[in-house]
Amino acid sequence: MDVLDLRTNMHMDRLPFLLTVLAFGAGATTVRGQSALNPFSAAGRAAVTTFVTDYQSIGINPANLGWKGRFEGKHVTFGLLEGAYTVHSDALKRADFRERVLNTDFRFTEREQEEAGRIFANAGAMANADLMSIGLSYANENLGGLAFHVRDRIEVSAKFGQRMAEILFRGYRADYFDLLVLATGDTVANYANMSPDSLAMVILGVATEPMLLGRVVKGTDIGMNWYREFNFSYGRHLIRTDNFELDLGFGLKYLLGIGIVDIRSQDNRLDGFSSLSDDFQIDYQNVEFMPGARLTGGMVAFPKAVGNGFGGDVGISMLFNKAWKVGLAVTDIGAIRWKGNVYKATEGSLVDLAIGGLENLDVISGLEDFVTNSGVLTWERAQARVLPLPTTARLGAGKLLGEWAEAGIDAVLPLNDATGSLRNPVFGAGADLLPTRWLRFSSGLVVGGGMPLKLPVGLAFIAGNGTWECGLASRDVITYFTQTNPTLSLGLGFLRFRF
């Protein structure tokens, strides 16, 4: 009889906390969404809504497709393999990534395990990635602007309540378990400063006053969302005079759901949902990864979907005196129907635990051992579920400062609590500076979204009067001068062309 059977006699298909491997595994080693997923050229600027043009307007403000481009005579813009990612943690320090996350040889002492549990109490990590495989747009004075792209959107987050953080890192040594079962069959009290020899004999922790899982995970919010988006957008001016221009745009998108995990506690009750692609190679019957399971390049390029849906974006842009810009957009209106490998977490009590917690911060492999052996959560097959997209509102204003500079401000507001939504509004101010026709600097300041003040920086090279463009950016350079609240990020694109 395994640990799951010791803990509960429910007769059902089980998928314990294994489903959170992706959510916390990617989250704490690297981790709710940030200001929004932006193209690489905008990652180095804290304001975006009134800056983006051509296919990079998709998902931000499609009305900008109606604007005249900076480069005269260029009607077609084409891009391949553009991407940006961001990783942030309010629990780890910058040195921890190098010394304790990337260093797979590192192992906690018992005291360090206890300290890790305290550090991650009411804290965690978040990450997102925006990976565009192809983008294409066409602009015409009479027709307006048409654009299409294919991109993968991935958001991962993990925030742990105090009790869950301690159990995660300390396992059966957590204060929650007051009895320890030894390999000899004897039962002893769980006490501080237990000798290494005694610890080596422990095989199980038992709680004589078990709590419902909703109370165990109280304060914990774990989410992962990965879907592929096929978006067609259109924008055109409705009014255009010498002193005023009004543009309207919309986007329609078809969505393929690759995976979702959503675990949280609401009013001391557990709420958990999961639907993951077969490509994650989870053996649902035996509650473990299949032998040799790993995501290959082919699986990432052509994943098997477990859901599909539709969405939309709408936006308005205005230009005053050919200098002042105003933009308003609502994006990700819609939902995905998750129908494959659907599981929901069931309420029950956590009675016992069979492992000693994570040995290091390599939680991708560490959590695999933790969840496949512990059975912290119990899951059962469920019906398909329709879940909304993380709908967002954008408000922006900016000013063109001749041909060589542009400045703007942005506010990004969450409109629901869907998986991948912002926790809080985000506000930013940024600028572009073009000292020559072939070089563009970007920078700004951004705050909100559950993170401290950030200083993004970007650099782009432009050749042939816009014929070819490449660049890279970071969403925060303050990280490289401080230890707390690290944010690692990179925006990169080198195959962007105009004709």
Describe the secondary-structure layout.
Blueprint: H1 3-7, H2 21-29, E1 76-89, H3 94-101, H4 110-119, E2 123-140, E3 144-160, H5 162-170, E4 179-182, E5 187-189, H6 196-201, E6 202-212, H7 213-216, E7 221-240, E8 244-266, E9 269-276, E10 282-283, E11 288-289, H8 297-301, E12 307-320, E13 324-338, E14 342-346, E15 349-353, H9 363-374, E16 378-381, E17 385-388, E18 392-400, E19 405-414, E20 426-436, E21 439-448, E22 451-454, E23 457-463, E24 468-474, E25 487-498
Antiparallel strand pairs: 1-2, 1-25, 2-3, 3-7, 4-5, 4-6, 6-15, 7-8, 8-9, 8-12, 9-14, 10-11, 12-13, 13-17, 13-18, 14-16, 18-19, 19-20, 20-21, 21-22, 21-23, 23-24, 24-25
Folded structure, characterized:
The protein has helices at residues 3-7, 21-29, 94-101, 110-119, 162-170, 196-201, 213-216, 297-301, 363-374, and strands spanning 76-89, 123-140, 144-160, 179-182, 187-189, 202-212, 221-240, 244-266, 269-276, 282-283, 288-289, 307-320, 324-338, 342-346, 349-353, 378-381, 385-388, 392-400, 405-414, 426-436, 439-448, 451-454, 457-463, 468-474, 487-498. The protein is mainly β and 499 residues long. The chain has a single domain, classed as Porin (Beta Barrel), CATH 2.40.160. It has a 14-stranded antiparallel beta barrel with strand order 1-2-3-7-8-12-13-18-19-20-21-23-24-25. A 4-stranded antiparallel sheet has the order 5-4-6-15. A two-stranded antiparallel ribbon has the order 10-11. A hairpin with a 2-residue loop joins strand 20 and strand 21 (439-448). The termini are far apart. Mean pLDDT is 83; it is low at 1-35.
